[in-house]
Amino acid sequence: MLLVTLACLLLVGSASPASAHATLIATDPAEGSVLEVAPEQVTFTFNESVIGVPAGIKVFDATGEEVASSATVRDAQLLVALEEEVGEGTLMVVWRLVSADGHPIGGSLRFSVGAPSEAVDVPTADAVADTDAPRLLGVVRWLGYVGLLVAAGVAAFAVLFLPAGRDVDPSRRRLRTTVRVATVLAALGWMAAVPLVALYQLGLPASALGDGSTWSALAPTEYVVPALVVVGLLLGASCLPLSAPDRSRSVLVLAGCAIALAAPAFTGHTRAARPEALVIGVDVLHLLAGAVWLGGLVAIGLVLGDLASRDDSGALTLNRFSTWASAVLAALVVTGTVSAWRIAGSWAALLDTGYGTLLLVKVLLVVVAIAIATWNRFSLLPRLRQTIRRQDRTSAAAVLVRTTLAEAGVLVAVLVVTGFLVDRSPEVRVEVTAASVGAGTASRTVELVDISAVVTLDPPAVGPATITLEMTDAAGEPAEGYEAPRLRLRLSTGDVDLGDVVLSNLGPGVYAGDVVLPTAGTWEVQVSLRTTEFDNPVKTVELDVS
User: Fold this and answer.
1) Alpha helices of 161-262 — where are they, by DSSP H?
2) Which DSSP symbol is given to 31?
3) Which residue has the higher pLDDT, 375 or 246?
4) Are residues 49 and 196 in the same domain?
5) Is residue 51 situated within a structural domain?
6) To pair with 290 at 20 to 30 A between CA atoms, which of 46, 309, 467, 500?
7) DSSP string of 91-150?
8) Is the distance from CB of 479 to CB of 491 less than 8 angstroms?
9) Which CATH number goes with the domain that contains 82?
């Protein structure tokens, strides 16, 4: 099983990146542009649909005074209309939206009318709220997921694995009490998360919870998912009997648990990953497997001692569950790998972001749990089955209970990490460095009078990329123009124009900038370089993006 885990992790290294959340790909007017007259409307274009936030869009002039405006969201576009006349000078549009995966995103756009202002005093730091999830939300998420998996898993164990017979009824009562307590914890966690999600997504203070606009701005899934979790668990807990259940009751218990476990897959990161049906299905299977594993371990820790002290029913029950657990572990590894592949997408995402670090911690904890499970399955369980005397059987069962609870404790730690992963953005931050150009690049050379420039795109694929311009003279030495070069990116068909690329100087004659390519095709890169006070050659090259 450890080899399977490592093999699956290697798959992540060769996976293509998935869409983490909405990314701004174009603005009209462009960042830093100078216009002759003020535009009636400012347009922001993203690579996926976004959700508007009340009071999330503000426009300021150079003095920091707010300019009257209104905002409209249409699928992947944000339209900001200026509702009052503005004079010459610099304007700043500060925006905050919510991505399809539930993560808030924010930024600002600066442009000028007539000429840039000499001094700009815009409260960008105060206007854009923090987009990092609060720790309290992570704690509440953990409580909700622990309650959900324990309640559903213990209920499923009671109807699937416990033997029939009145002598097992005391164990059933203990498990039913556990299910009800876990259901209450899950309900508290999932319902308490709703107002915290509202404040997190909208970037508002706690006092905003008294405003109706705060609640109406949340996506319907933020209400529906917690409701389904609570209703499903209440159905399972209420139908769980004190004695061996009949077929109809067992179906109701399992149906309630399935509803509760499937609901969380319809919100969060899975809403932004593609293909959506595959990712949601994998997420549902992942939660089902996790509930069977964690809930089964908790149930074994509660009832194995009693069952083993009577006869061999404890060993038989554990053997039956252990057989299922092997399939559950395989399902967890496969579904977890697919989820990481679709959401993280690369080793860079695992090693260079907070999301990736937490994901690696989760993987390591799961490996520890698998190691304990392997020890239980192939060492302690056979020892329990081979015992004959009651005293030896009780002693062997006590050891197995302790290791089982240790395994469950590791899984609870996994859920602690999961609670913080749910609301953390998996965005991969692409840093521009001099060594960012390597294998898997697309390059073209342009001649700008006496300067030769090499344009390189790394990687030449849909998603985040780095575009680099390296300029040399006739002798092959680094060269500079009269001013810094300018690059403009547009799709050859004219459907998408990303505008000017913001370039950073990496050294003599080397400039680079980050871009997000929303679609494949042939992209035109317009290179403009003022070589003298009067000469400004402009050349265009084409780069193929897969």
Assistant:
1) 169-202, 212-216, 221-239, 247-262
2) T
3) 246
4) no
5) yes
6) 309
7) EEEEEEEEETTS-EEEEEEEEEESS--SS----HHHHS---SPPHHHHHHHHHHHHHHHH
8) no
9) 2.60.40.1220
412 and 295 in contact (C-beta within 8 Å)? no
Domain span at residue 46 reads 22-115
DSSP secondary structure code for residue 510 in this structure: E
Residue pair 185/140 in contact (Cβ under 8 Å)? The answer is no
Q: What is the mean pLDDT of the chain?
A: 76
The first and second tokens of residue 366, run together, are 């799961």
pLDDT of 129 above 50: no
2 assigned to some structural domain: no
* 361 and 243 in a common domain: yes
**Domain shared by 406 and 469, yes or no:** no
Residue 387 lies in a domain: yes
- 514 with 467, same domain: the answer is yes
Q: Residue 5's pLDDT is what?
A: 41
What's the structural domain count of the chain?
3
| 118's tokens | 């000499």
Q: Give the distance, in angstroms, between the CA of residue 514 and the centroid of all CA atoms in the same chain.
A: 21
Q: Backbone phi, then psi, for 134, in 5-degree steps?
A: -70, 150
Sort residue 70 into left (φ over 0), alpha (ψ -120 to 50) or beta.
beta
Torsion, CA 292, CA 297, CA 302, CA 308, rounded to 10: 110
